[in-house]
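This protein record is not my work; I was only asked to verify it. The record follows directly below this note.
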Amino acid sequence: MERDFELLSQLVVEKVKSRAQDLKEQEHFKVPSISRLGKHWKDYKSMSKESLILNEEKPKSTNDCQRQKSRRNNSDCVVLEPLPQNVPDLPPIETETAETSLDAIMQHIDDSVNRSILGVFNRVGREQSRESKKLNKTVICPALDISIEGISSHPHFRAQKKPSLKPQLAELPKLELPKKTHKTPKKAQKIEKLKICPKEVIWNKWIKVIQSSNAIDFQNKTTTFKYYIGKGNNSPLVNHIMKSRWWWSRIENPSQANLIWTQLKHRSTIESLPGFTGVIEEQLVQETPSKFVQSEVEGTLLIKSSPSYAKLKPIQNMSEVVKIHNRLPNNSSLCSKKKLFINLKAFYESLNQDIFRVVPTTFHIDSLNSQSWNDFNSAYTPNSTWIIKPGENTNRGNGIRVSNSLQEINEIVSLAGSKERTYIIQKYIDKPLLINKRKFDIRCYALVTSINGYLQAYFYEEGYLRTASKEFSLKSNDKFIHLTNDAVQNKCEEYGKFESGNKLSYSDFQKYLTANYPEINFYDNILPQIKKFVFDSVKAVKGILNDQKKMHAFEVFGYDFMIDRDFKVWLIEVNTNPCLELGCSYLAKLIPAMLENAFRIAIDPLLPPPTENKKYKQWVEGINFKNEFSLGFSMLRDENVSA
């Protein structure tokens, strides 16, 4: 009889494992609790033969039927149904016949295993648990213990703490059942409230870094601000970027706007900006390292890693009505060709450096009777090529001439008869670096902000090359050879023939260098020269750009550079209101990203979005946090540089 129960136990174990796998594959199968399965199997010997095999069904009383029905309705207690009456007694213990004799039993188990086996689990488990407590000892039965999802049964867990019982342990069969994954609606709502969007963390850190570097501690009191955009070639893009800021609305009256964007400097707007009369002081605070590493990588690293970065004490007397203009009061000190040359010359002379290591040999001519004209005549050599530019505000290639004739240059300059009309005569770079035999220049962007009258300058790490449509030659004065700006090149029949929109990215230029000049790396050998000259130009005019310390203004400048065959970088000019047209697929990606990035520095920290609004989280999750502006100049840290 004992061997019968041992054989039955082994068959039941195999049947349970097989049945559990079938149940797992059914989508509607609900995971039973461990208490229903029983934490382990106990010894079947404690059970009487009659509890498993019934030769004849006993008559049931009314109370018995009600009790059995009640037990079936209880999910925690499953009753073992009786076997059919025609099940024969077990034959003598022989392995060959035992399995055959148990066919009826196993068929019954297979039909009701979802109820019967679980009932055996519970019943046997409870009985053996009571015995274990009475005897205060662990019962080991490896063949009948079962591990659910890798969790050891209770007796095995206790036996692991007793060295004497470890040799009796065996690896348990495992049941891997589906896990419960759904959450109740209330619990899900609570979890959702506790979630913090990673982009929101980055955004908050970004705003705090920019505000602290500009002495701002500002909380907006209104949910909507107003902006005005004047007519110009850049207005559609600016309007598109501002429309994405849901707390801003466009108006047609600039006097009521918080942001005034115009193509040229708006004199009345500049005059309406309040001046700052306080003192900017650095706040010496030891900042704890950020635990959110991603914010340092994508947001503030290019700002905080700069030697020019300083955390400032916030200004307490900020104006209630904040006004921002996209033009600096004296931007002509940078973008006027005449003033740029004069200011750079004074700056480098104060440092005992030669300006003509930065810009080509240049002469500012205001008349044929001036000393500078005489100096030019002395420097002129036959067949040398010079480029003549109007000294005052011009752009898009207007008024620029290329000539190697002294007589022709004399005729051009003879028009300069007053202070309103002067010329810049500059030595033409006659040995420029070429791309496939064609001339090119480099356009890059700088952002200069004056918040609270505190000047800072940033350099945008991405830019592009502008190529000529025709092969380079000094024998021709053709503009399509010498001038690379779009206003000239887009009139050429071969415009866009070699590059889309005659534009190349920095990475494309690096591929060309790698193929033709493998020893030169653009990012290591050329870009650092460009950045230095950009920040030098801002340092040269730091006391002029905003001499009245108007509270809030900023400007995006377009810088143009050339490279000669020796890979020496030359500053050509600085442009206010640079062209922001999206002439090719690369510019359609670069320019909106640059302008959006500039607004996150110059506008959003001053007038941030209201965080209590429902639209805030949706907006902050959708914006791009990749910052490409590196800080290179600040008034406080670089004030010891002579201008």
